[in-house]
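Work Package 3 (structural annotation) set out to generate three-dimensional models for the target panel prioritized at the project kickoff. During this period the team completed the workflow that converts sequence records into discrete structure tokens, so that structures can be stored uniformly alongside our sequence database. As a representative example, we reproduce one entry of 241 residues exactly as it appears in the project archive.
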Amino acid sequence: MLFKKTNLLEKLHLEKERHLTNGENVLEEVRNIFAELDKNYSRIDKNLAESSRNSRVNIFDFDKLDSERIFHVDQIKKVCIDYRLRFLDTKYFKSEIPAEAFSKIVDLEKKHDIELKGFKIIAPSKLFKLEDKDDPILFAPMGNGYYYLIHKWGKDLHPLRKLMMWPFKNVGNLIFVIVLLSYLTTLLIPNGLFSKSSSIAQFGILFFFIFKSIVAVTIFYGFALGKNFNPAIWNSKYYNA
């Protein structure tokens, strides 16, 4: 064989020896890197557990910002209402924030020479530890109602979630759905089930009975379980807001 095969491990050792003189230096460098990471992660974890009300606005270097990641609170509110999501401080978030999010925070802090605070998250209610009265997105406040997107993780929302949450946007939508559901249910009842002949009056009585039944179930679900319409809960920390 004219040419000897390249041993990648040997090449790695040679490259390392160009920068470091001995193994102790390698261990020391690695130890320092991990110590710095642990220090940063502990600090960030503490900041994530704090309330955004106790934190100052983050002063970003605007020349280094990605405009695609800047969102106003009105835009966030609209999405939360449409998909029945909550926009709350990270201290209420009960699921685990991935290491990748911590890394992105560290990178942003180094890039902008700041310590990020006041973190908030968009997520479904079930992912928050709510007080009694499928895809998180982490933000940092910029001031004047603007937020900077740091990291998104998890699976995307169900494609029909917006449609399924439409009845909970307001009273009008809910009444429309109840009336439609009552009408369709009445149509499913076979003719002559309660009398030998069917009539408009009989259909109206059945419709009214089914309508009252669905309204009763809806009221029980809404009041007994402390549910509310989307605009009232999007930024509420309370379970039964």
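The longest strand covers residues 137-143.
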